[in-house]
C-alpha cells in the first residue's frame, strides 16, 4: 500500500463531493481524503502499488482541479 500526498485547489466540501465519485469508484484507491482546512488543501490517497502519482494528477485535472505532488 502506498500513501500519496498532493497539493490541490479543492478548497470546499462541495468541491470534495464533486470529485468523490472519481476516487470512490477507482479500483486502485482504497482510501482518500482532502484536508480543506490545510493551506495546501492536501489530498491523501492510500493506493495500490501500481497507482502512480501521475495517474492521480490526471484524475484530478480531468475533473477541473489542479494537483501537484506535495514536496516532503
Task: Summarize the structure in words.
By secondary structure, the chain is an alpha+beta fold. 31% of the residues lie in helices and 32% in strands. The chain is built from 2 helices and 4 strands, in the order βαββαβ. Strands 2-3-1-4 form a 4-stranded antiparallel β-sheet, with helices on one face. The longest helix is centred in the first third of the chain and has 12 residues, at 13-24.
Write the layout of secondary structure elements.
Elements: E1 2-8, H1 13-24, E2 29-35, E3 42-47, H2 53-62, E4 67-69
Antiparallel strand pairs: 1-3, 1-4, 2-3
Distance between the termini: 19 Å
Tell me the major beta sheet. Answer: 4 strands, antiparallel
Q: Radius of gyration, rounded?
A: 11 Å
Shape: globular
Amino acid at each position: 500500500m502506498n500513501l500519496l500526498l498532493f497539493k490541490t485547489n479543492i478548497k470546499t466540501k462541495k468541491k470534495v463531493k464533486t470529485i468523490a465519485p472519481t476516487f470512490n469508484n477507482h479500483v486502485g484507491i482504497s482510501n482518500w481524503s482532502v484536508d480543506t482546512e490545510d493551506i495546501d488543501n492536501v489530498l491523501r490517497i492510500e493506493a495500490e502499488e501500481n497507482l502512480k502519482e501521475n495517474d492521480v494528477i490526471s484524475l484530478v485535472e480531468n475533473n477541473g482541479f489542479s494537483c501537484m505532488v506535495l514536496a516532503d
